[in-house]
Amino acid sequence: MSNYDVTTNFSAKDSLPTGNAAKVIKGSEFSLEFNNIATASATKSNSASPTFTGTVTIPTATISVANTTTANITTANITNATCENLTVEEATNSGVTGMTIHNTGTGDADAALKIDSSGTGESEVQFLHEGSVGAKLEYFIDGGNPDLNLSTLTSGSVIDLQPNSVNTLRAAEGVVTVTGDLRFSDGTVRGEIGIVGTDDVYLADNIAGLRISGSSNNQVFPCNELGAITDGVTDLGSNAGRFATGNFTALAVQSLSTSDNIDCRVNVTTRGTGDSDAVLHLDANDTGEAEIEFAVGGTVGADVVWTTDGIDRLVVTTLADTNAPIILEPNNNPLVSAAEGQFTIDGKLRFGDVSSAGATTPLATVGLGGSELFIADAVVGLRMSGGGTNNVIPCDGDGAGTTEVTNLGGGANRFKTIYSQNALNTSSDRTLKQSIEELNEAELRVAQSCKGLIRKFKWNKSVQKKGVDGSRYHVGVMAQDLEAAFSNEGLNAEEYGMFERNEEGTLSVSYSELLAFIIGGL
Fold this sequence. Notes:
By secondary structure, this protein is mostly beta strands. It has three domains: 10-42, no CATH class; 108-241 and 257-428, no CATH class; 435-520, Winged helix-like DNA-binding domain superfamily/Winged helix DNA-binding domain (Arc Repressor Mutant, subunit A, Orthogonal Bundle), CATH 1.10.10.10. 11% of the residues lie in helices and 40% in strands. The chain is built from six helices and 38 strands. It has an eight-stranded mixed beta sheet with strand order 15-14-13-12-11-27-26-25, with no helix packed on it. It is rod-shaped, with a radius of gyration of 40 Å. It starts with 9 loop residues before the first helix and ends with a helix.
């Protein structure tokens, strides 16, 4: 592109004396000047709808509104561009309308999309379909702690995490579904929840846990760190971490015992004050998808997609064959890693309510107490104490071990059978007791009469399920008969631990105490 330069100074000829040969204006001088003008105008751009070729350098560009339906740019070097509203639009029935940020450098040549809000504004990426916002990724600091929220805005929509293009986690309203294993780590894997076999679920630390096999036989088994059932290895509770009461219909045990690196960026920045949001607006049409793609060296490795084709979904994906996990790093600290077939949390997984301001009210927690895995509601839970002790112990809502606080089951919610290698270990230390007395005459007579109360019987539920011939006999006493034996001697059975009237009105008997009572009457 050239500028017009004057070759002949015609004004100077006016001051020359008459007869001076230089005072004559020649046709060749006119031709040269007009040729110079023609050359300069031919290489300049029009002010309306200009067309550029070669490399265009724009030191500073301020654009109030730019609506570009078609833009063919071979090379554009823009040092600084401020844009109030930029729309990139293309009417295509298929394919992708995209914006690529490509750093062609070498080494640590990052490609970054920077969204910067001011004041109490939000830095936000919106995902739209046909003009309607369906999902957004937003970061804000509004009078509280910084929050990064990934959310959908339509009823019935879900958020999928798809490391290596495999759907590993789906978050629907009130429900999180994990495909594969859910792992807990503090740098080292300390425990996991997963599926083993066809449809059994297990919760384990890196040594021991529990496997739930309800679909086939309604059982809970001890297991190792991979969910494989173990036999005679895991204790339920410990000498210093006991359950208060175990309530079961039947208890079956094997035995019992006691005791040149330049970053390439696109910045979306607001310069105002107050609620000045910075938004990256992606809007697809018809069955298209609103999408952000992440690439290195021209190869796409991950994307964030909002789609309404079939089901409204916001999908965060690392693409197939990349083997790349998806990592969430609040405050720049890795917390969640979603890899193909597993979901790892460095800390605690809490279930609860999240307010619009980002504050959480935890209702339940699965996490690590020290280096041990626990699962609890706000008050009580279980802790897998596999490290060195191979125990499952009761704990509080923060995973701290408790003793003689937690019941296993309840009067109306009993486990069916406990399978144990050793006998139940029951506290019996004299220092824990008071009102220690020998049985009186009336109590001895009740104990002696109890021997005659023992009957064989079949459980109603077993007969209903298996029939009379298919169900087995059990041996014990009828709690009503035991109550009557006490009453006959003027005693109240409810003052003795062997007899219990449950809240729903049914009666229970503690056979370990009843056996000791009968022996005392011999």
